[in-house]
Specification:
Elements lengths: L2 E4 L5 E3 L17 E4 L8 H8 L4 H8 L6 H11 L2 H5 L1 H20 L2 H31 L7 H26 L11 H27 L2
Antiparallel strand pairs: 1-2, 1-3
């Protein structure tokens, strides 16, 4: 049975032909290459050379003989040391807690919980630029800017989280009592929290799918 590898995300498919679309990243059929497990004596050296050729970000680095500038070096190191998968855990871990606190503050009328949720959202907002930039860098280099629906959904989810956290922080600064029972706009304020939580869940789910390839 033949094996085919997606050149975008690295997913390996077993079958006589590659799938129409990669089940992990959504890349088209033409992004798959056949993995040669056995080679003849005549073609062995050539096949081995092909297998050892770097792909993606590694190929870009190998093709360039000039020393990268400071920003290029930083971008390469961000991929090498998995800055995006690490950084994205920060807001994804804090957001559920912040949403839980703001709902508890509304239900039990605990202003201190609303304040804690607000400062948690400030922290989320401050971390999002790194998450967005590192994610864009990884999409460009590791996944070759593949425009499939799964990447578009992940990018859109990250932007929604950023926009929602900004709205929540600014709204609380303008109206510190927005979570109180006297506020008429409190349902809208809470709904924005739910949208943000849902977007964070979608982004995390897609990210896990890309990492574990299942």
């Amino acid at each position: 049975m033949k094996k085919w590898q997606c050149t975008v995300c690295g997913y390996i498919h077993t079958g006589e032909a590659p799938p129409e679309k990669c089940p992990v990243c959504g890349a088209d059929k033409d992004k798959f290459v056949e993995i040669k497990e056995e080679t003849s004596p005549e073609t062995g050296n050539a096949a081995k050379a092909d297998e050892q050729k770097p792909t993606g970000a590694a190929a870009e680095g190998a093709a360039s003989t000039t020393k990268p500038d400071a920003m290029e070096f930083i971008r390469i190191q961000m991929i090498k040391h998995h800055v995006h998968p690490v950084s994205v855990h920060i807001p994804n871990g804090v957001i559920p807690m912040a949403v839980l606190f703001v709902f508890l503050a509304v239900i039990f009328q605990f202003p201190s919980l609303a304040t804690t949720a607000f400062y948690s959202m400030v922290f989320v907002l401050l971390t999002m630029p790194l998450v967005l930039y590192s994610g864009y860098n990884e999409w460009q280099r590791k996944y070759r800017a593949n425009p499939s629906s799964i990447f578009i959904a992940k990018i859109a989810s990250a932007l929604i989280v950023s926009a929602a956290s900004l709205i929540i922080v600014l709204w609380h600064l303008l109206d510190p009592d927005i979570a109180s029972a006297s506020s008429m706009l409190r349902p809208v304020y809470l709904f924005i929290h739910l949208i943000m939580l849902g977007a964070a869940f979608i982004a995390g789910f897609i990210g896990g799918k890309l990492v574990f390839k299942d």
